Amino acid sequence: MRGIDELEDLRGKRVLLRSDLNVPLDNKAGKSVIVDDGRVRASVPTIQALRDAGARVVVVAHLGRPKGTPDATYSLAPVATRLSELLGAEVAFAADTVGESARKTVAALNDGDVALLENLRFDARETSKDEAERGAFAAELAELADVFVSDGFGVVHRKQASVYDVAQLLPHAAGRLVLAEVQAFSKVLDDPRRPYVVVLGGSKVSDKLGVIDNLLDKVDRLLIGGGMAFTFLAAEGYEVGGSLLESDQIETVKGYLDRARERGVELVLPVDVVVAADISEDAQTSVVAASAIPADQKGLDIGPATVELFRGKLADAKTVVWNGPMGVFELAPFAGGTREVAVAVSLVDGTSVVGGGDSAAAVRRLGLDEGAFTHISTGGGASLELLEGKELPGLTVLED
């Protein structure tokens, strides 16, 4: 997989750059405001490198799920404004993706200029399951450019027109973000220094079954928190009260617990939890043993003893992957576990990779130093599939 530095002279060439600019927006005040610009900032190094090379950069991306038709709620216009601020240069914005506005905007670019086209998912062909439909849209995108660069790691697990099909129509390369993501995950999956510890959280164990299945043969320790922990606790015979429980996964989880014991993998579960009757900012909370959750209470965060336990299991680690919060971190009463585990991961004397999605959002929301981690992924779904050992179509199409 070649990077942009291996492309031939880009001066004057139109580069179609697939970025991941799918940022959360707040529309409550009647105006779209970016809540977390992490993905926009992550796209800047590749854009700037292409500008420095004299390319005419045509950025394409999606935002939200607009169901294949234009919807002002999901316009990328606020992203164009933020991107202009970060680059210190105006980013031209096209009001459509492959229509008249896009063609005129691209035609007006000079060397080093940047344009952002409107939301790709305003055209249903972008995500179509029909290869002919996707191919037709990809062909229209390809007409706007001479070269394709893939830098939207958050979508490389999708076989979509702007990710997969267009790469087959133009000379192509991986952007700096995609290369950095691939290198980071290759390091922790293929050649980890030991002890190798993986911390998994999030709400549903069903979302992480593939990850657990793949990593049980690779890791030394697996620490389980978040809502998914209660299915593990139930599999160990504990009552979990009103906590999130996937009863249909209990037998599967029992199998993982047996495999871990057989392979000598430490599978570490919470020993105490923060509970409350309801999920709210002003909830009345208490800490109980994981074996004594009241029937009328929900487990919503790991407790202080579990934090200390996890901290100890991370202390001598040389490779750590963390994917998924330890509790409902968006609300202050249940944010402590996620914050403390994140800090413990950041202090690891070795490689620390944060697996995107809610974990990356938690780092920023809780005001933690992003530079304290070796790598923070921009792709939740893509990072999960890599951790599952899957091949990602948006990456395999670049390997030629």
Folded structure, characterized:
By secondary structure, the protein is of the alpha/beta class. The chain is 34% helix and 16% strand. The chain has 14 helices and 17 strands. It has helices at residues 38-52, 77-87, 100-107, 131-142, 161-165, 176-190, 209-215, 229-235, 250-263, 304-314, 336-346, 357-365, 380-387, 393-396; strands spanning 14-18, 25-26, 33-34, 56-60, 91-93, 114-116, 147-150, 172-174, 196-200, 221-224, 266-268, 272-276, 285-289, 298-302, 319-323, 351-354, 375-376. Strands 5-6-4-1-7-8 form a six-stranded parallel β-sheet, with helices on both faces. A six-stranded parallel β-sheet has the order 11-10-9-15-16-17, sandwiched between helices. A hairpin with a 6-residue loop joins strand 2 and strand 3 (33-34). Helix 8 (229-235) crosses helix 9 and helix 10 packs parallel to helix 11 (336-346). The longest helix is centred in the first third of the chain and has 15 residues, at 38-52. The chain starts with 13 loop residues before the first strand and ends with a helix. The model has no long low-confidence stretch (mean pLDDT 95).
Largest β sheet strand count, sense and barrel closure: 6 strands, parallel
* Strand residue content: 15-25%
Query: Unreliable runs, pLDDT <50, ≥5 residues?
Result: none
Q: Quickly count the helices.
A: 14
* Percent in helix: 25-40%
Strand arrangement in the largest pleated sheet: 5-6-4-1-7-8
Label the structural class.
alpha/beta
Number of strands: 17
User: Span between N and C termini?
Assistant: 7 Å
Mean pLDDT: 95
